[in-house]
Design goal:
Length: 113
């Protein structure tokens, strides 16, 4: 599978503000924050889009959500937050490495644009 800038972040080939890491996942601050707290959680395994995930990835996907929970708690998002997965062109995905956005620190609008 083709690599993206996120693989370079995993390998520390380019800098990022990493806030969490374990064997399966990495979390770092988004370089173009859309909220006071904007953190991206990624699997170390390269899965381009959530639509490319398979049932083999079931426990990894659960791991990512629980990582979101942990990272949001550590970031102090006690008043809530939003978790976003953009998928493909119409979903607004720009980096083809599955990632979960954590957005918080302000009241977010709904519906998104
Ligand atoms: P998406 O549009 O859902 O594919 O989200 C990709 C996100 O990755 C965007 O919010 C970008 O700002 C963010 N991003 C791209 N490159 C970097 C980087 N080097 N460090 C941190 N965040 C990045």
């Amino acid at each position: 599978m083709s690599e993206t800038i996120f693989s370079k972040i995993i390998r520390r080939e380019i800098p990022a503000d990493i806030v969490y890491e374990d064997d399966l996942a990495l979390a770092f601050r988004d370089i173009n924050a859309q909220a006071p707290t904007h953190i991206v959680v990624i699997p170390k395994k390269v899965i381009p889009r959530v639509s490319d995930a398979s049932w083999e990835d079931q426990s990894l996907l659960g791991h990512l959500l629980l990582t979101v929970q942990k990272v949001a708690q550590e970031a102090g998002l006690t008043n809530g937050y939003r978790v976003v997965i953009n998928n493909g062109n119409d979903g607004g995905q720009t980096v083809d490495h599955l990632h979960l956005h954590i957005l918080g620190g302000r009241k977010l609008q709904w519906p998104p644009g």
